[in-house]
Amino acid sequence: MKRGWRFGRKHGCTSSGIQGLSENGFLNTLKNGSRAEVSCIAAGSKARSRLASLGLIQGALLQVIANPGFGPLLLSVGESRLMVERGIATKVLVQQV
């Protein structure tokens, strides 16, 4: 794991959210067109609140529209499209569906 990662209830992730880490991945690693479900968000309360206001919450289904490998990612969540900064995307654990 990367330095500084902390998974725990404090960050919105429980053991069920990170169970089977090999089957899961981080949002920033998904390729264009990939579909995934958000397992947990290992970020601070402000970042989680901001993502929740955009519809990106635990259990949300999303599709990666554009992930150029640098800069922000373009996602489709429900009927919305949103840009997520790469730093925040590294804190969103997802499971491909």
Give a description of the structure.
With 97 residues, this protein is an alpha+beta fold. 18% of the residues lie in helices and 31% in strands. Strands 1-6-2-3-4-5 form a 6-stranded antiparallel sheet. The model is unreliable at 1-5 (pLDDT under 50).
- Report the strand count: 6
What is the 3D form? globular
How would you write the strand order of the largest sheet?
Answer: 1-6-2-3-4-5
Cα-based radius of gyration, to the nearest Å = 12 Å
Through-space gap between termini:
23 Å
Q: Average pLDDT across residues?
A: 84
Low-confidence stretches: 1-5
Estimated structural class:
alpha+beta
- Number of alpha- plus pi-helical segments: 3
**Fraction of residues in H or I helices:** 10-25%
| Beta content | 25-35%
Tell me about the largest β-sheet.
6 strands, antiparallel
Q: Tell me the series of helices and strands, N- to C-terminal.
A: HEEHEEEHE
Quick summary of this structure?
This protein is of the alpha+beta class and 97 residues long. It contains 3 helices and 6 strands; from the N terminus they run H-E-E-H-E-E-E-H-E.
Main features:
97 residues; alpha+beta; 6-stranded antiparallel sheet; 3 helices; 18% helix; globular; disordered N terminus
Give the arrangement of secondary structure elements.
Blueprint: H1 15-18, E1 25-26, E2 35-41, H2 45-53, E3 61-66, E4 73-77, E5 80-84, H3 86-89, E6 92-96
